[in-house]
Specification:
The chain is mainly beta and 540 residues long. The chain has a domain at 380-539. Strands 36, 37, 38, 39, 42, 43, 44 and 45 form an eight-stranded antiparallel sheet that branches. It has a five-stranded antiparallel sheet with strand order 14-13-12-11-35, with no helix packed on it. A hairpin with a 5-residue loop joins strand 25 (264-268) and strand 26. The radius of gyration is 30 Å and the shape is elongated. The two termini are 56 Å apart. This is WG repeat-containing protein. It comes from Bacteroides reticulotermitis.
């Protein structure tokens, strides 16, 4: 019950894309639940099954703009065991495609990323609008703009594109969020702090905050000041404080705000007046309902009204927010649903509900993959092209079976000692796309040096065997954050490039993260070891 366990996660308030929720609320007439059989179905508020997809679903979201993002099985993919897809309210898949990453729909657009693909904007019918090949990360659209991240000189910078894929605000920010009411929090210099920009990218509320959230429907935004001991307050659209920074946490909750003080939660109104004194260890949101689930001890949950009075005394393992007239509750590890008076309307029988249903104020889904995606594109060809530089039919990277120790020393400079018959070079060689040669080990069939004692001069003398010919070279490839999740793709690309370059009848099989390729003059062994890839070239 992954989402139910979110109740136990304490998180820090801050601001990134995940803190500004989509403006379009979920369609709540259909509720996704996980059954004992392990698949997900959609029920109505009376527990009747409305959608039971033909294909088994491992995860499902609420419907946003008529589409639910679902996690499905895929036996055809070697790397995506549970890709993402979209279904409509009939349970039909919208375009037959499966994605590695996907957001929910907002402003009529969702971002999707196919395996080894770029962030691509699609319509609710699954039609492609445009793709952003150069970007690293994108967030959902809001008010016609989407935050996008690019790498410039090794530094991540954020800007915005419009719904045509055109640059609306040039990338210039360390971080930013989604627009709400024509403004969005953004930061150019973390030492200066967060401010708010307009759709032209101009600061209309100057940078000054250590944390900042989007403006809500009340025209207010949560901001923080301080570093280690952050305090939060509320500002209006002119940047003036409506509630001075004094709380450990503030979360918008419809017309009111949940506040945290001295480790417990309560509610204030939009002017800062306390409505319900802080007293609860954890709570869900009222949203549009007049009741919500609370816990006073982090163990048992009950239901309170907007005056803080118990409608149902604490007795269940969890009680979520009310959407419509019902809320999920947990009893003995099973999920059921209760009404606003605490009466059971659907008996506990399900094993999970979506994370967007069971998120408490202590659950801060900073990396909520419903709201943004990262690129999965990896240019293996660029890596292999750089790897095979100075290679010909009888050599690899300028080294062949006829290359001597003396020639290697001349090319690579001083080599550090590895063994009596091998030496290593630790000079880093960038192969692009986060892959680099971090170490090279040269091995020889004979010892490379011989020491003797000079009795005449009373010293030891060492004579190097510079004529020794290399028999094997080992390359250790290091993978940074861009490449660390792509070892199979990289190894496959290297194997394919070697076969294309040298020709081979060897069958490429990376099932055990290792492959051996025989050519007329060399034998290549490619294997994964820890987080690195080793290429061993043995000369015949």
């Amino acid at each position: 019950m992954r989402h139910i366990r979110f109740l136990l996660i304490t998180a820090t308030v801050g601001v990134l894309l995940g803190s500004c929720q989509p403006k379009n609320e979920a369609d709540t007439d259909l509720i996704p639940v996980k059954t004992n059989e392990g698949g997900w179905i959609f029920i109505d508020s009376e527990g009747e099954v409305v959608i039971k997809p033909v294909q088994q679903i491992y995860e499902a979201s609420f419907f946003y703009e008529g589409r639910s993002r679902v996690e499905v099985a895929d036996e055809t993919s070697q790397t995506l065991s549970r890709p993402l897809a979209f279904i409509n309210k009939k349970g039909e898949f919208i375009n037959g495609k499966k994605y590695k990453y996907a957001t929910i729909f907002n402003d009529g657009i969702a971002w999707v990323v196919e395996e080894n693909g770029f962030p691509t904007a699609i319509t609710p019918t699954g039609e492609t609008l445009f793709a952003l090949k150069a970007c690293e990360r994108v967030g959902i659209f809001s008010e016609g703009l989407a935050p996008v991240c690019f790498m410039e000189d090794g530094i991540r910078v954020w800007g915005y594109v419009d719904n045509k894929g055109k640059t609306a605000i040039h990338p210039a920010f360390v971080d930013c969020s989604g627009f709400s009411g024509g403004l969005t929090p953004a930061v150019k210099d973390e030492a200066v702090g967060w401010g708010y920009i307009n759709p032209k990218g101009e600061f209309v509320i100057q940078p000054q905050f250590s944390g900042a959230n989007c403006f809500d429907d009340n025209g207010l935004a949560v901001v923080g000041i301080g570093d280690r001991d952050q305090k939060y307050g509320l500002i209006d659209r002119k940047g003036k404080y409506v509630v001075s920074p004094q709380y450990d946490q503030i979360k918008p909750d419809g017309d009111t705000y949940i506040v945290k003080s001295s480790g417990v939660y309560g509610w204030i109104d939009r002017k800062g007046k306390i409505i319900i004194n802080p007293q609860f260890k954890d709570t869900f949101y009222f949203r549009k309902a007049n009741v919500t689930g609370v816990s006073i001890d982090d163990k048992k949950w009950g239901i309170i009204d907007r005056e803080g009075k118990y409608v149902l005394n604490p007795q269940y393992d969890a009680i979520g927010s009310f959407i419509g007239d019902i809320a999920p509750f947990v009893m003995s590890g099973k999920v059921g649903f209760i009404d606003r008076e605490g009466k059971i309307v659907i008996n506990p029988q399900y094993t999970d509900v979506p994370s967007d249903y069971m998120g408490t104020v202590k659950t801060y889904m900073l990396n909520d993959d419903r709201l943004f995606v990262s690129t999965d594109y990896f240019d293996v060809e660029a890596v292999t092209t750089n790897l095979l530089k100075n290679s010909d039919s009888g050599s690899f990277r300028g080294i062949s079976g006829n290359t001597t120790f003396g020639q290697i020393k001349e090319s690579y400079g001083d080599l550090s000692y590895f063994s009596s018959s091998s030496r290593k070079s630790s000079e880093t060689v960038d192969l692009s796309n986060g892959v680099s040669i971090a170490q090279i080990i040269f091995e020889f069939p004979e010892e490379l040096s011989k020491s003797s004692y000079n009795y005449y001069d009373n010293i030891y003398e060492t004579e190097e065997n510079t004529a020794a010919r290399v028999s094997c070279v080992k390359y250790r490839l290091e993978l940074d954050y861009k490449a660390v999740n792509k070892p199979t793709n990289i190894m496959q690309g290297i194997a394919d490039a070697i076969v294309k370059k040298y020709g081979s009848d060897s069958a490429i099989d990376l099932a055990n993260s290792e492959s051996t390729i025989h050519t007329s003059s060399m034998e290549f062994n490619i294997r994964k070891y820890g987080s690195a890839i080793w290429i061993e070239v043995t000369f015949k």
